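Notes, p. 3: input format for complexes.
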Amino acid sequence: MTIVIKGGTVVTADLTFRADVLVDGDTIAAVGPDLVGDEVIDASGAYVMPGGIDPHTHLEMPFMGTFSSDDFDTGTAAALAGGTTMVVDFCLPAPNESLIDALQAWHQKAGKARTDYSFHMAITWWGEKVFDEMPLVVERGINTFKHFMAYKGALMVNDDEMFASFSRCAEIGAMPLVHAENGDVVAFLQQKLLAEGNNGPEAHAYSRPPEVEGEATNRAIMIADQAGVPLYVVHVSCEQSHEAIRRARQKGMRVYGEPLIQHLTLDEREYFNADWDYAARRVMSPPFRDKANQDSLWAGLASGSLQVVATDHCAFTTQQKRFGVGDFTKIPNGTGGLEDRLAMLWTRGVRTGRLTMNEFVAATSTNIAKILNIYPRKGAILPGADADLVILDPAATKTISAATQKSAIDYNVFEGMEVTGLPVVTLSRGRIAYQNGEIRSETGTGRFVERPAGPPVAKALSTWKELTAPRRIERSGIPAGV
Ligand code: URP
Ligand code: ZN
Ligand code: ZN
Ligand code: ZN
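Output follows (482 residues plus zinc ion):
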């Protein structure tokens, strides 16, 4: 059984051309003119692109006394409806828990997935057991380790732990990720604001100013450089953080930055809404910023200093958000976006001329496939690549509404926004998984994607670090000491 996508324009990270795409089983069999298959999908007038990869989701995440409400079933249904064919979630070991045990628990949860998936392993505590298990995690197909510099008393790790973990990553060909916010300063500001009677959702934003993100980003970059390892900074929300990344990249450091579609399109005024629920639904970390920061993030995507647009999809219902009535520090942090990332980025990015179509593909799929060392199996339209594809109709339009979304929560942070350029068909490993507004893939059809250690950039960096390491000067005539 083969499928041919006919009459469309193929758009990849570097090329745009008219071609049919032939899918045979799980993979792409051919790309070219006049291809023939058993089943035909008409893509005339539309773009055929690599399926979106969202490298930052929290499905059924245990967090702040509850679990995020989209699990691997509803979350990946939302992903498919939004043209995303792979998610990378975060495995979070409990304090003192074995990384391998935690991984097993996450594999269990992900059994419901409708898209392919992978995990980042979070370093939530530090000790010899973690050090010993990190290579075992890599053997199990995970080459990235996440570090939270915020959430003091919960997920946060300190600088010495981070340096030890980053150094271990360098040894085993893995890459660290950071949530960069100064957790000590945030904890202080939270208590100060509460003591002053500032307990509403707007205080969440005041407790996490851009400076705490810029400082932490710079600190993580410096620690990664000393450890000799590339670094990936998640949810870059502001100029302060972007500036640190830009500066490091210009010095030759291997640092990647990931803005979210939320920070590109929503700003801090959301927290000033008089409706408590409205504002609390938008509480996430880092918070939405002064609008001026958006220009910086868009410019970063255009110029290459930022590479990936993600969602950090972490969906809590209004009921869950109300845990924080009277105390903003108890509002579960997180927002959704999986279903809207591509349409929003197309509408606000490609249609405005901030991004080319090829840059759009790079930011939603190809760049992260390369960074995570799964390219060209994912992120490419090439014979042999997984047939993870999205057909985007640039003329299709809709108004975003919670009433019609696949996500399990009762609101949408993009509610009422009009988007033009919609994913209309999504193929997941060769199967039509979304078409005509309907999810067609079954729960449990997604597969774990193994990601090998030692991507080219890590190898290049370790070669360079070795070459430029301090070396003892051998001298002949050493004078006698006094
Ligand atoms: O507020 C957020 N971002 N929630 C999810 C956890 C995280 O920090 O990424
Ligand atoms: Zn198969
Ligand atoms: Zn985070
Ligand atoms: Zn996150």
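The longest strand covers residues 389-399.
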